[in-house]
Amino acid sequence: MERQELKRELDATLEARRELGSEYESALVESFVEKVDTQVRRRLAEERLGAARGSGGADRLSAATGAGVGAVPGSGTFGERFGFAIVTLVLAVPLSAIGAAQARLSGLVVVWAGIVAVNLIHARSPRGRAKGVDAA
Description:
The protein is mainly α.
């Protein structure tokens, strides 16, 4: 259900962008990211509440999203990974424009190499591991 809500929000944001023009693009993107962030925070709160009650909130999240807490070792919860990916992609747009404007293709390659490196480091960081999950 939440996925459908976010899809409707994205559709509405894209339609508003078409109607309003590119002057309002950053405000529209920021608004959509806030809505996604709100959804992610709500899911995390539900998961933590379920875990605190011992009812397997992470299992419900895994079933609902197709990704579990330990789906990728060291990558943290689905919400953390999803939020980080969204922020990375939002920041990738202006960084790509700056890199391409300043150094053309080589600047664009450097920017995207940095984006990939940051995401790989985040995915492998032990900081995001859930409590009780062994590093094995």
